[in-house]
Amino acid sequence: MLFPRKLVSLSIAIALSLGSAAILADEYDELDELEDDLADFYGDEDFISLATGSKKLIHKAPSVATVITAEEIVNTGAMDLDDVLEMVPGLHVSKLPNVYLSIYTFRGIYSSFNPQVLMLINGIPVTNVFTGNRSQLWGGMPVHAIERVEVIRGPGSAIYGADAFSGVINVITKTSENIEKNTVGFRAGSYDTTDFWFSHGGKLGNVATSLIVEVHKTDGHDEIIQSDAQTILDAVFGTNASLAPGSVNNKRDNLDLRLDLAFEKWKLRGGLQSRELGAGVGIAEALDPTSVQSSNRWNIDLTYKNDELAKDWNIEALLSHLNTTQEIDNNLIIFPPGADIGFGAPFPDGVIGNPEVFEKHSRLNFTTSYKGLDSHELRIGIGHNYSDLYKVKESKNFAFGPNGEFLVPGSPVVDVSDTPFVFLTEGDRKNNYFFVQDIWAFANDWELTAGIRYDDYSDFGSTTNPRLALVWSSSLNLTTKFLYGKAFRAPSFAETRNINNPVALGNPNLSPERIETFELVMDYHPQTGFSSGVSFFYHEWNEIIQFVPDTGATSNTAQNIGEQTGYGVEIEFEWEATEHFKLKGNYSIQRSTDELTKQDIAFVPQQQLFLQADWQLEKSWHMNTKFNWVMDRERAQIDTRSAIDDYQIVDVTIRWQAPESNLSLALIARNLFDEDAREPTANSGPIANIPFDLPLAGSNFFAEISYVF
């Protein structure tokens, strides 16, 4: 493992070697040759707008960025956004036991709700205020509506505000410009999985339209859990209620609809994402084969963009609304029938609790850019965000009923909504913000981006977050970046408003989490068809919100108490070896430390290796192979289980395009060699609820057919 002094030495050595190679390779002095070479090096997919709000080449952008296009998504056989994100350097997609919720871990920054990552759909946050993430019932995102995915590793609060903390993911969906004809597709395979999609693009008079429908149904993988939380309770209370050994419940029934209408400078987008999810291992890590949780999310966004508002001025105005729910379709079984949880007797129908939340989010934002100053591009933004957790519902058969009565085992399920005994209080949050950014090209080869954003919140006060990025075009082949930024993560309502929970209580006096990050980045393109990059980073994460045991009680209350530091290196390359063969990959190594305990951070990979090969076999055949190696994950200090095993997963996709036809067929193999891959589970006491960790899917196979007309 690298230590800071070795890391600095390595960065200097790489910088010198790349610089020397660049000097030897830099024989392009004429401007016309420069333009020709840029056209050879870069296509449209190599531009990104996420870093500054304006379109820039990735290697020139003041950030560490990755772009994955629709073409690459198709070639790799990706079926969900998680499949796409696993290709990003320094990003690990982990899972939680409850509904197998995806956790996106950037650079060793991990938490169970994952609110430190900002997810955007077409530049608009989809953050839920309850847990601060994409929703506890996110349920994945299909890929056929995706035109490109832009990812920034590192802080982005100077532009995007709250939760652009460890990384920002922007999913850009297709419009009529990207959909030349109608497409219909069908996929079927392992675990009784069926997928259907349809896309349409065209014009209604002067209005450009697109419509995309995606349906996903699956029983989900059924890996076996040998022992669960109820197994422990059975040993304590002498019961026999556990359903372990038993399979996880990963059923999913998803519907995605997306509509896009564009007229001159106006764009109207609408979407619906409906999710019905099995409980995974269970909400309390006790097997629950019958419960179904659901989420219904719909959004509507209206954008006005005028690039010719006045000389050197442009403007963009956005009005958006998002409604999102987390609901229980049938009783959520926390512990199975016959369970005893210390209330004096077993619960004949099981321990049942049905927490539900309903939210709405409205945003009004104005952004303008001015290019009238010599060598400067000024960008200014102002906006208002309103988040309202307007309804909380709960029914249960344990603890206290609506009138304060104690619910003994065998009591019926009662509704405690709108009583003092509900699990969460309703409330809203208002956020007003202002930001300014200047991109200053103060020399031919130097560009300085400086930005600052001020946010004022109605519930926890204000915060100011700056960033600086110095980009040096060392030569045609080499770009060097020096990056600095601060970011914040807003406390979630689960952390500030949780009540009547014997385990976790909220604290209305929380401050936001804060992070400060330093980065050194080098992008090197020695020749046409080959690109590479190395990124060094160091961060300090403070005011981490953790649930701390209360004195003389069994509860834990949220407090700003944690501190973490981390550093690492990310190396990536892309090589077009021949016209028909491409190879790309990345390797990342990081070390993150809990500054209170001086222990390595648990759960996160300290090393990752990803490789991908694309072959164009003959004219009609295409083959893609991916290799993902996850290494060196630590357990928590109190966890005495054996070390977490590394895993290596190989995926293969073979696609056939019928000659002179719009018919396409594909075979997709996931985890081809049936690797026993597992994600670590928590150990909050002397015994882990799931002692053998959380199993991922074994070998699974799919066949796909699509037709363009």
TrEMBL record:
GO terms (BP aspect): siderophore transmembrane transport
Keywords for the protein's UniProt record, in alphabetical order: Cell outer membrane, Membrane, Receptor, Signal, TonB box, Transmembrane, Transmembrane beta strand, Transport
Family annotation (Pfam families): Plug, TonB_dep_Rec_b-barrel
Signal sequence range: 1-25
Protein's membrane topology: Multi-pass membrane protein
Presence of keyword Disulfide bond: no
InterPro entries: Beta-barrel_TonB (IPR000531), Beta-barrel_TonB_sf (IPR036942), Plug_dom (IPR012910), Plug_dom_sf (IPR037066), TonB-dep_rcpt-like (IPR039426)
Compartments where located: Cell outer membrane
GO molecular function, one term: siderophore uptake transmembrane transporter activity
Domain TonB-dependent receptor plug, first and last residues per copy: 60-168
Sequence ranges assigned to domain TonB-dependent receptor-like beta-barrel in this UniProt record: 254-672
Cellular-component GO terms for this entry: cell outer membrane
Similarity-based family: Belongs to the TonB-dependent receptor family. Hemoglobin/haptoglobin binding protein subfamily.
UniProt-recorded name of the protein: TonB-dependent receptor
Organism: Aliikangiella coralliicola
Lineage of the species this protein comes from: Bacteria, Pseudomonadati, Pseudomonadota, Gammaproteobacteria, Oceanospirillales
